[in-house]
Amino acid sequence: TDIEKGTYPHYMLKEIDEQPLVMRKIIQTYQNEEGRLTIEPNIVNAVNDSDRIYIIAAGTSYHAGLVGKQFIETIAKKPVEVHIASEFVYNMPLLSAKPLFIFISQSGETADSRAVLVKVKELGYPALTITNVAGSTLSREADFTLLLHAGPEIAVASSKAYTAQLAVLAILAEVSAQSRNIPVEFELLREFGIIANAMEVLCDSKEIFEQIAREFLSVTPNCFFIGRGVDYFVGMEGALKLKEISYIQAEGFAGGELKHGTIALIEEGTPIIALATQESVNLSIRGNVKEVAARGANPCIISMKGLNMDEDSFVIPKVHEVLTPLISVIPLQLIAYYAALHRGCDVDKPRNLAKSVTVE
Ligand code: G6P
């Protein structure tokens, strides 16, 4: 994880490929001598003492927050709200009696998030920053910090920081659950090993994603991502990746919501990338795909092994259902990468974007 590109044509591709390595680094760093995942007791207490967690973030980190909410609510049974930093600062919701604020920021320098942190500290509430940069502003000004250990992320479009954020949020959820004797239906450490291997399989499947990008995205002006539950949140991140680096207009939608308006945009050949990694909604998301296919859309279904069907474009390896976002995002990162490449875009330095935005 050094900052050289080595033999890679782009930092983004290198950083996508580093994800299995980062997973293993996180497993190592967050493990204690007895081989159990562990988090500083002060931080676990802050989670346990709060009656509601408020996640504040921007961009990709906001999308990680949406998945993090799912992790914390399912695993640690704590209610979580996720807010866009620039909205929260001017439009603060009613807070619970004992809130804990979690700031998610790769850089730790995003001004929109910092504005919220300043306000939160004025109000006297505890704050935890999850960041890739030790000593960053958001880390220094919060009470607690959890580091991503993802190594420097150079490409403007975030990839390995997103999966690292998910991993750290899952650890936080699990350690908090265990400390309160809440049963967790899987052993996270073991699942992380399976996930790291699955990430490798995906990173080794680049030709398929290049082919998908060529087939679905070489000429289109737009693209929709659909999913239900966490697949919806990962779809939003997939859409952001595609917008950022290929300039294709893309949007992530909840599978059931598309028909309430946006389906009007579907034309002959409009690409729809659908995620199907959740058993409980597998049939309903496939129903949504049929609705758009009947109107001429060109569907690309990415499913998880065990839920796959003949028409699927790609099947990701099986991992625990709660944790699928850690791997289902990788096909979307790679599809965005190749779409941008085929369109001749500057992958690492997309127009109008900055790696960290230090103005509000
Ligand atoms: C910028 C970057 C995005 C990033 C967002 C939040 O807009 O272009 O890629 O997701 O900031 O950055 P942070 O460092 O707070 O995660």
TrEMBL record:
EC number: 2.6.1.16
GO biological process terms held by the UniProt record: carbohydrate metabolic process; fructose 6-phosphate metabolic process; protein N-linked glycosylation; UDP-N-acetylglucosamine metabolic process
Subcellular location(s) per record: Cytoplasm
GO molecular function, a single term: carbohydrate derivative binding
Reaction catalysis annotation: D-fructose 6-phosphate + L-glutamine = D-glucosamine 6-phosphate + L-glutamate
Primary localisation category: cytoplasm
Keyword match Transferase: yes
Active site: 355
Superkingdom, taxonomy of origin: Bacteria
Gene Ontology cellular-component annotations: cytosol
Record-annotated SIS domain positions: 43-182, 212-350
Keywords in alphabetical order: Aminotransferase, Cytoplasm, Glutamine amidotransferase, Repeat, Transferase
Function: Catalyzes the first step in hexosamine metabolism, converting fructose-6P into glucosamine-6P using glutamine as a nitrogen source.
Subunit structure: Homodimer.
Name this protein carries in UniProt: Glutamine--fructose-6-phosphate aminotransferase [isomerizing]
Span within the parent record: 241 to 600 of 600
